[in-house]
Amino acid sequence: MLLAAGLARALLPAEAEAEPYLMVREGAKCSDCHTNLTGGGKRTAFAQIHAHDILHDLQILPIPPGTKPFTGEVTPYVSIGGDLRTRATLTFRDRPTAAGTVDGDRAFRRDLRSTDLSVNEFLAYLEVDLYPDILSIYADENFNGVANNREAFALLRGFLPWNTYFKGGRLFPTYGLRVQDDQAFIRARSGYTFQNPDEGIEIGTMPGPFFIASSITNGKSGDNDVAATLNGYAVVTDVPVVRNVIAGGSVARQTNKRDVYAVYAGSNYGPLTYLAEADKFEDRNLATVGRRDDWATYGELDLLLFGWLNLRGTAEFVKVSNANDQTRYAIGAEPFIDRFLQPRIQYRINNGPRDQPLLNQPELWLELHAFF
Questions:
Q1: How far apart are CA 367 and CA 186, in angstroms?
Q2: 222 near 178, Cβ under 8 Å?
């Protein structure tokens, strides 16, 4: 029982970006597995040690017996991690009419528009424990092209009631479900992606099944005001029939003219895991009157087959003024073939206003993810 609980804690996102379905499936908090307690980035030593039990990988590489994998630990006080994603993206389209429109609500388009091969992500993490489990320094660096620091903060924890912690530096403000796809409407339209860190402070507490955190950051560039977020959720395990239930909500004051809100929840049934988030945007900027986001939704269904193959389907919608609504659907497969390797195939259907052909282009992704 204790081992199962420990593995559940470690089974949070194995990738640079968080994978909330693992949190829901295993009944754990993001803070149980990540140096960054709000999710994403470097994984803990526990997650490395129990990687096979966590990932259910196939272990099909011809590794000589007795070969020990790298755990990321350089010294007892210094550890590292990393993520590399390479992707081939095939984009399809229909030829616009003379009026510049395309048919709407199509799952498939006629022509292959482009094939793009790219290094989609190359991240490195560094953690220095000045006092283990009390004071640490953490850095998250993006080396994809030009080096760019994503996070750099000091983390103080371990001596206050209810697992209270303090964080200060460059960080990702805590908000909503940290789904892997930064293009998801709930992430891109709210502004809380893994591409938008900000300088500020964060305070959080983690009593029992609860997690509550608030961040105060600089906010919009050139604005004299600050931005503030509040995010909280609960993880309830051993629930009859569904096993785990997670529910939470977020609120953010981005400027004096824009507020965003989110509610999210997830559960599971047998090999099925399901989760959803709905975001409401209150935008009072005059410049956005002509095309203003109202609300966005995200739903995800994951099916674990054979104990190692994850099949995933997602559905998204964003309500935009003046009939500029957009929908998106995706289906894909994500097996772990080794503790360091995960291939991925995904077909994503994008549909938007008919007079905007670039918003009506399906995509096929072929991706290889190497991580430690």
A1: 23
A2: no
Instruction: Please give the sequence-ordered ranges of beta strands (E in DSSP) within the chain, or none if there are none.
Output: 73-75, 78-93, 111-131, 135-142, 148-157, 165-171, 198-205, 210-217, 227-239, 243-255, 258-269, 272-283, 293-305, 309-320, 326-335, 341-351, 363-371
β-sheet bridge partners, residue 369 = 85, 342
Range of the domain at 144: 2-371
How many domains is the chain built from?
A: 1
Q: Give φ, ψ of 168 to 5 degrees.
A: -145, 135
d(CA 329, CA 349): 5
User: In this structure, are residues 300 and 274 in contact, taking their beta carbons and an 8 Å threshold?
Assistant: yes
What pairing do the DSSP bridges indicate for beta strands 227-239 and 243-255? antiparallel
Q: What is the pTM of this model?
A: 0.90
Q: What pairs with residue 246 in β-bridges? A: 235, 266
CATH number at residue 300: 2.40.160.10
pLDDT in tens, 319-354: 999 999 999 999 999 998 998 999 999 999 999 999
Residue 251 has pLDDT above 90, yes or no: yes
**Residues 144-160: pLDDT tens digits?**
988 899 999 999 999 89
* C-alpha span between 14 and 46 (Å, rounded): 12
What are the two backbone dihedrals, phi and then psi, of residue 46, each rounded to the nearest 5 degrees?
A: -60, -45
Residue 104 above 50 pLDDT? Answer: yes
Q: What is the pLDDT of residue 18?
A: 54
Asked whether the beta carbons of 249 and 261 are under 8 A apart, the reply is: yes
* 58, 335 Cβ separation under 8 angstroms: yes
Sign for the CA dihedral angle at 100, 105, 109, 115 comes to positive
pLDDT, averaged across the chain: 89
Measure the CA–CA gap between 275 and 242, rounded to whole angstroms: 13
CA-to-CA dists, residue 190 to 216, 297, 362, angstroms: 16, 11, 23
Q: Is the pLDDT of residue 110 over 70?
A: yes
